[in-house]
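Final report, closing paragraph on structural work. Over the funding period we assembled a curated collection of sequence-structure pairs, and we close with a single example.
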Amino acid sequence: MTTTHKDLVWYASTIARAVQDIGQRVGKEVNSALQELRGPAEFRHGVWDAVDSIAGFNRERADSLVLYSLAKNTPGKGVAVEVGSFLGRSTAIMALGVRAAGGTGRVVAIDPHRGGTGDIDSEDPNAEASTYPLLLHNLRRLGLLDLVDIEKTDAPEAGKNWVHGPVRLLFIDALHTYEATMADFEAIEPHLDKDCVVVFDDYCAQEYPGVIRAADELERAGRLPKPARTLNRYRVFGVHDWSDALR
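Its predicted structure, as stored:
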């Protein structure tokens, strides 16, 4: 094979991959737009603008809408729990959903705030890079601090001393290893309401195979509510009627 032929093959394969990537991104954006149009109107007119002022990783509008809607509409009793808060972006999304539901609902935000981003070896064991002050700042300026109970620790420790009652929504988005994901779920599992919804973040991201392995093993073992659905980055368990959940 000549060098010129090799180059042509490389260019052709590169262009093909680029076209495929563009098609996938366009399809995702179209699906996200349709999902948002079917979702609650207040998300498009206030919620997104509020949470988008907080830095973080949950940057997709459609993912944020799903988390907001589940915090607002899940049928179980109890609190909404987030494992992995970072700067409070998803915390605020869930708190706004709880507020929209009315009543006396609350969000429990669990994070040791050692500067971790969810990636392996990203935490500062000395907590010199604490994200806790920024979490407080972001929730306070959005007027949401009164809706959130902050557990400045990891999920296994929080689970040992649980005082928050039953859990209707569990969102796991902390250290993305298999061992940590399993430990986070098992810590809160005894407190799950019978009608709970459980969400694993970054289930579709191939760079986090530990999340996928943990969620799949728990599903096969029958420890997660049914049915299951993959939605964007999320693996969601326990939603029976999506039209009702996303209202």
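DSSP finds nine helices and seven strands in the chain. Residues 140 and 146 are 8 Å apart (CA to CA). We thank the funder for supporting this effort.
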